[in-house]
Design a protein that fits this description.
Mean pLDDT of chain B: 64
Distance between the termini of chain A: 51 Å
Number of helices of chain B: 6
Low-confidence stretches of chain B: 37-52
Structural class of chain A: mainly alpha
Radius of gyration of chain B: 24 Å
Structural class of chain B: mainly alpha
Oligomer: heterodimer
Largest sheet of chain B: none
Mean pLDDT of chain A: 84
Distance between the termini of chain B: 44 Å
CATH architecture of the largest domain in chain A: Orthogonal Bundle
Chain lengths: ~170, ~130
């Protein structure tokens, strides 16, 4: 099977989830996802293998999502939160937790709604960490933020998501 | 109790196959925007920087040289081999070389970094 089709098949789901999660509920998520693959195909000769293919694809996806947000006037600039970097940061990347159970228990609409309610920068960091599975250093590199800023954003995203999911769970 | 991290759980909940309708629309758009035009890849790009290819080729060359030398040293000297015998030898040698080449390739592929893998598959992007 040609490589492009394999790449499309492997990444279409994650990229669609990332785009949908980053731009929020928006009818153009599907079209933007297709744009990502068309741009990648058009730019294939520019890919020199200096980075991982997935990193290159995620940067195209991120640019497509940010362009769209910029047009809507909602560019999620990741703030420098160095001062917020504390021991809490370790929680940003830990294993199983109470939040995991909350995510499992939430219905699809409720989960998407809670993600949509996150601040744009938190939402973006959350999507890059969870859906794109990028390590903290890579998120920092892609967003131009420091690693501790990314940790703080993830910690806050995690807190806000859990609070929203708990509220939905409550009778 | 789940062993997943929050990020893994989110990924499992959020990542969905967009479905056949999405695929149909995408490939229709792809055909419309890319057409049938395919830029032929330059030969040097296919082979340049391909550590795996070069190592496999070197392995193949060494195997071929060793097999050829062995054949020259141990071939029957009393009478010239018949055409059928030569053909059988040639086919066996060919199969052996193919197998050695495949093994070299596999060994190389096992060692490939992500970047090497990407370089290897890069050249059939243009096949769409």
């Amino acid at each position: 099977m040609p490589a492009f089709r394999r790449i499309y098949d492997a990444f279409k789901g994650p990229i669609m989830a990332y785009v949908r999660g980053t731009i929020g509920r928006d009818a153009v998520a599907e079209e933007l996802t297709q744009d990502v693959f068309l741009k990648a195909y058009a730019a294939r000769d520019g890919f020199r293998g200096d980075s991982k293919l997935s990193t290159w694809l995620w940067s195209i996806a991120r640019n497509a999502a940010l362009d769209h947000l910029r047009k809507r006037g909602e560019l999620p600039l990741i703030p420098d939160l160095e001062s917020g970097a504390t021991a809490q940061d370790a929680l940003a990347d830990e294993g199983p937790s109470a939040e995991t159970a909350l995510v499992d228990a939430a219905d699809q609409r409720g989960l998407q709604d809670c993600i949509d309610r996150l601040a744009p920068a938190q939402r973006e960091a959350l999507m890059l960490r969870s859906v794109a599975e990028l390590p903290l250093a890579e998120i920092a590199s892609q967003t131009g933020a420091s690693e501790s800023a990314v940790k703080s954003l993830l910690f806050r995203a995690r807190e806000a998501l859990a609070k929203c999911l708990r509220a939905k769970e409550a009778p | 109790m789940t062993r997943e991290s929050l990020w893994q759980a989110l990924r499992r909940r959020l990542v969905r196959d967009p479905g056949p309708e999405f695929d149909r629309k995408f490939w229709a758009r792809f055909e419309k925007e890319q057409g049938g035009a395919r830029e032929p890849r330059e030969v040097w790009r296919i082979f340049s920087g391909r550590r795996g290819f070069l190592r496999a080729f070197a392995g193949w060359g060494a195997s071929a040289a060793a097999a050829g030398l062995a054949w020259l040293m141990f071939r029957p000297s009393s009478e010239p081999p018949g055409e059928a015998e030569l053909l059988a030898d040639s086919e066996a040698l060919g199969e052996e070389l193919e197998m050695l080449e495949a093994l070299d390739d596999m060994e190389d592929l096992a060692d490939l970094s992500d970047e090497d893998w990407e370089l290897l598959i890069e050249d059939d992007w243009s096949e769409g």
